[in-house]
Predict the 3D structure of the following.
Amino acid sequence: MSDPNPGRRRSGPTQLDPCPICKKASEPAYVPFCSARCADIDLGRWLTDRYAIPTAEDEDADGVEPRPDQTA
């Protein structure tokens, strides 16, 4: 099958990109990682909130006004 956009880099990780955990060459079976171990480390970081996707929401944006004695 030919690439419909020749000369254009595909988005996402490739086999040429290093492993984001240990920086070794990535393996096709685990792209973008080099091994199942590095993939599991990355998953663990997401599950323990070490990684987070930033949002524009304010921390106090729950719709509840703070009590007068709680103002900073």
